[in-house]
Predict the structure.
Amino acid sequence: MPKRFLIVAGFADSLVLFRRDLLAALVARGLTVYAMAPELTSNAHTSTTLERLGVHLYDIPAQRAGTNPLADLWLLWRLYWLMRRIRPDIVLGYTIKPVIYGIIAAWLARVPHRYALITGLGYAFTNGRGGALRRLVQRMYAFALHRAHKVFFQNPDDCALFGELHILPSSVPAVVVNGSGVDLGMFPAAVVSPRPLRFLMICRLLGDKGVREYVDAAQRIRAKCPDVRFGLAGWIDENPDAISQSELSDWVAGGDIEYLGKLDDVRPALTECSVYVLPSYREGTPRTVLEAMAVGRPVITTDAPGCRETVIDGRNGFLVPVKSVDALVAAMERFIEDPGLAQRMGQESRKIAKSKYDVHKVNKVMLREMGITCEPRVKAEIHG
């Protein structure tokens, strides 16, 4: 039974937003748990939450969108040095740089069990197809994953693509899990208010999330039905594909979008909305969609990798083609024409969330696949 577990993240907040229940499960099974991320110890909310769980925290000098090779070498050295000091039995990295440099550092440090979690493909794949950036990322992924013991994917399309591109060798096992899961207790079902009809999108404000398509659809709908509301929550990210501040300001000034900013707690917004929308070009498995389903909201999303797995078309929502504003508008109009549809489909969303995306079921699979099979010795306390 391993004793020391290290998780490496590219974004400090994600350790609480997406991995808190997994870390709690590890602590409950008696493991000493370490977490590394940029600016982790200076992030008051995240560091306090994780320390209360019993997780030991370390900062790493990772720049998620940076391409400076010297900075990346410094990150690799820092990871290697910390791993030699901590001597973990297991390392799990997720997102691009923690996977690539985390696995390489763990290999150099002779960590006995090395795992990667592919939570999505990122800008290099969705917008850099065929370009130098994508080729570089593929080579680096391949070098790292040849030194992993197992790779987790959040949808079967990403798993298949890594095999087709020879990024993941056949000798390294691949496991597809149902996203990051969702805590059904923290996201209880809520009745949909029949009027006014409210659509909601929550995401990093990137072009490949389908933000522009969502805004275009809102403008078309409100030209005919001005009482329908459209909420947009999120933040402008460090990414070449990010929405500009001026573009966002123009949308808000136009009056068709209610900008909610970056939400520390998405539950009130999800409860107030009628239908959740994510017209993304590609995802791992979108966590906000799972949270909306848990609350009991229908989902309009794209027939794209990572998105299509969450919706049974016509049962708990609608799937639309990527970049098709016409199809997005048509799906939205279905809810305008049938006031009871959101509640009926939302109930189906909740059922699917319970059967497929319960975070405890997802984490149980990951723990088993990492050889952590003992039952919890204590109940770890989880703080919001």
